[in-house]
Amino acid sequence: MQASQRESGSVLGSWPRIRKRPEDFPVRPHLLDYAATRAAFSWEAARAGLSGLPGGGLNIAFEAVHRHAIGARAHKTALRWIGKDGSRRTLTYAELSQEVLRFASALRALGLKEGARVFLLLGRVPELYIAMLGALSAKYVVSPLFSAFGPEPIATRMRMGEGAVLVTTPELYRRRVASIRGDLPSLEHIVVVARSGETIPGTIGWSELLARGDPRFIVPPTDPEDLALLHFTSGTTGRPKGAMHVHAAVLTHYVTGLYALDLHEDDIFWCTADPGWVTGTSYGVIAPLVHGVTNLVVEAEFDAETWYRILEAEKVSVWYTAPTAIRMMMKLGPEIAKKYDFSHLRFLASVGEPLNPEGVMFGLEAFGRPFHDNWWQTETGGIMIANYAAMDVKPGSMGRPLPGIEAAIVRREPDGSVRVIEEPMVEGELALKKGWPSMFRGYLGEDERYRKCFAGEWYLTGDLAKKDDEGYFWFVGRADDVIKSAGHLIGPFEVESTLMEHPAVAEAAVIGKPDPVAGEMVKAFVVLRPGVMPSEELRRAILAHARTRLGPVVAPKEIDFRDNLPRTRSGKIMRRLLKARELGLPEGDLSTLESDEQASAPLPGVQP
Ligand code: AMP
User: CA-CA distance, 288 to 296, in Å (whole number)?
Assistant: First the structure.
């Protein structure tokens, strides 16, 4: 790979372009000629890469597992799992299919109603994959929860999604679920994955349930438009949004696995994302299995040297990770990476946040290949814009739209319509022409909110971006004030509501503050109840409360005490102003600001 010729016109564009040459590809990329592949592409034709159910219809789990189990890949490793303690488990496609069908039939035997919601609160253990694919095989709707969530985010999501079944572990049950169980009226069954054989009253043991299942279960007729997955994502206001996805999404997973991740038959694929988030489901479970490759699952959390060792020892060939992890590896420098043999590593991809040009180049330096940034969001269900194996990389750009996807930079007009901006490198909102298979079909119970995401034929992403004269897209930023920490979107409302549960707290507002490792970290501004004196001890107590309720990823890392908060005349807290003041940036338009003379000064004697 050759770095040459600088793009002009922006700071990001000043990085050298990475030219791809045929000798850079150990295997022939699926997408060799971007323009030609795009021109020839149709979703109907791409459907030939899937099997469809024997009686007609389309089911994600059938495409991911069962079709391989009755075909040539039956004895090929589907899942290669490495536990925290170094233990291993491998499941061939045939073995995985048997377990999945057993679980599906056992769930059915519980007598759940059509389309019942099955929530998963598990770390990255094999049972998570079996449960997810089993519930999908039985046509139930799966909602994976991040296992670091505290009781409150779990309860909110399960209430919104009317969860009928929860699959979890004894530890998570005791720490996160037992206290909220009485507040979950729709919850009928809790399945507990207990390795030790321990039983918990009022729950069903995983092994006991599986023993009741029949591996001859037949996947029932599934309409491509049947609801399959429910992914919660945080919004700027109010509760998290439940993005609804259907079985047809598997066609996007297949096509993106082909073109954006360039999956080939012999690949060992590793997606480092947790299935509690959409990346870990679409690409940590579905796409690699649909392609019949070996999917590596690592239970342990990030540690640079452990990851390097795994990449080497497992001979990972395609690796999909995130900017936060890349930045952590960068902190340690490329020298450590150079001790390892990454000769099997063929393609590196990144998603979740903008990938800095330094990150792209770090790939080249440490692994001999650049990271390929790609862009998508919970609502899109799959990768929409990407840097492809055979396409030049412009560091700092998220690449070009996938074949079958039309993306544009648009401006919203006062009459509600949108105008496409044709001029290159002009900032506007990133929009996608609606109709791709994995497009979300709604926000659970919030039709109006869903409708507002569309203008005519366009889906409006809420992200700001630019497009250059070669059709590469450049991320500018999110249009709202949701906080992005370590690859996770955090909505202020949930955090603020939790802070206000503390008896000393009267009001709270949170912002994202730049953090070199996590991208952003949550900072909270808290107004105490009258008569409560601020102290270091109280600050620590509130932080501890937030950690217990929200989990460490979502909880604030810093708290400042304030006398009051800046707000608009209509009563809305102005988070952007808090952020501007915190970072010493221009305060912008203050015309709607209510008087807040004391808001900007921290209380004396209480510095974070
Ligand atoms: P989520 O719905 O949690 O997956 O978050 C989606 C949001 O993450 C997008 O709307 C973007 O704001 C951001 N995002 C994801 N991937 C990228 C990327 N490659 N570059 C810039 N922002 C990204």
Answer: 10
Can you tell me which atom of ligand 1 is nearest the CA of 398?
Answer: 19
Instruction: List the one residue out of 189, 155, 171, 162 whose CA is nearest residue 122.
Output: 171
Q: How remote is the CA of residue 503 from the centroid of ligand 1, in Å?
A: 36
Same domain, 535 and 437: no
Entry pTM: 0.84
Protein residue with least CA distance to atom 9, ligand 1 = 377
> What is the 478 CA–ligand 1 centroid distance (Å)?
8
d(CA 474, CA 256): 20
**88 — pLDDT class (breaks 50, 70, 90):** very high
Mean pLDDT for the chain?
Answer: 90
| Nearest CA, atom 23, ligand 1 | 353
Per the structure, the count of domains in the chain is: 2
Domain contains 31: no
DSSP three-state, residue 316? coil
**How much of the chain is helix, strand and coil, in % rounded to 5?**
30, 25, 45
Beta bridge partners of 233: 241
**pLDDT number for residue 305:** 95
Question: In this structure, what CATH number is given to the domain that contains residue 494?
Answer: 3.30.300.30
> Among 400, 475, 554, which is best to mutate for testing ligand 1, by the most ligand atoms less than 8 A from CB?
475
Q: Is residue 133 part of a domain?
A: yes
Looking at residues 29-50, what average pLDDT do you find? 98
Ligand 1 centre and the CA of 181: distance in Å? 33
Q: How much distance in Å is there from the Cα of 74 to the middle of ligand 1?
A: 36
What ligand 1 atom has the least distance to the C-alpha of 231? 2
Q: Is the pLDDT of residue 599 over 70?
A: no
| The predicted structure's pLDDT at residue 577 | 87
